[in-house]
Amino acid sequence: MILPIVAYGNPILRKVAEEIDPDYPGLEQLIADMWETMYASNGVGLAAPQVNKSIRLFVVDSQQVFESMEPDDEDRDKYPDAPGIKKVFINAYIKELGGTPWSYSEGCLSIPKIREDVQRPETVTLEYEDESFELHTETFTGLSARIILHEYDHIEGKLFIDHLPPLRRKLLQSKLKDIASGKVKVHYKMML
């Protein structure tokens, strides 16, 4: 089932999400609904707070980024994580950040029609549980690391705009206000 995406301004996007255990009610269906919602919204990642659940859960599919690149696309060789990942992350915590910070234009389903260059570390080592609650410690790089860090921010109550310089954030205030008041129209269902 496609779930509505929580829009900027909703307080759930600013809460630090809670850990869950295997007994969390309806978890398997929630994960399936998050995948369906993410794909229907043309996203590459989706965190549970974005579907109004304040829990430490997010999904990432960076494979589709690489699949959508043309074979002769010069960016294809720029990212060391090709062909990407498709994973569920539960109760994730960052263990280490590394590499040279780099800039990339990010957007967010909860903050539609705004894209900004965001600096993020090149690699992230994450401790997380998969959908079977098996514990993993894994290092991610490139676009996969960036998407993970973006989604991880959501479970920590942060948004990509928090990484922008104060003046840039100030310049976005009227657009953000329009999103929070429901004036921005998108092709997917949003929830204020």
From TrEMBL:
The keyword Metal-binding is assigned to this record: yes
UniProt keyword Iron present: yes
Gene Ontology MF terms in the entry: peptide deformylase activity
Recorded catalytic activity of this chain's protein: N-terminal N-formyl-L-methionyl-[peptide] + H2O = N-terminal L-methionyl-[peptide] + formate
InterPro entries on file: Peptide_deformylase, Peptide_deformylase_sf
Positions bound to Fe cation: C108, H150, H154
EC supergroup of this enzyme: hydrolase
Cofactor detail note: Binds 1 Fe(2+) ion.
Cofactor: Fe(2+)
Keywords, comma-separated and alphabetical: Hydrolase, Iron, Metal-binding, Protein biosynthesis
Active-site residues, as the UniProt record annotates them: E151
EC assignment: 3.5.1.88
Pfam families linked: Pep_deformylase
NCBIfam families: pept_deformyl, PRK00150.1-3
UniProt similarity note: Belongs to the polypeptide deformylase family.
PANTHER family: PEPTIDE DEFORMYLASE
Function in brief: Removes the formyl group from the N-terminal Met of newly synthesized proteins. Requires at least a dipeptide for an efficient rate of reaction. N-terminal L-methionine is a prerequisite for activity but the enzyme has broad specificity at other positions.
Protein name: Peptide deformylase
Organism: Mycovorax composti
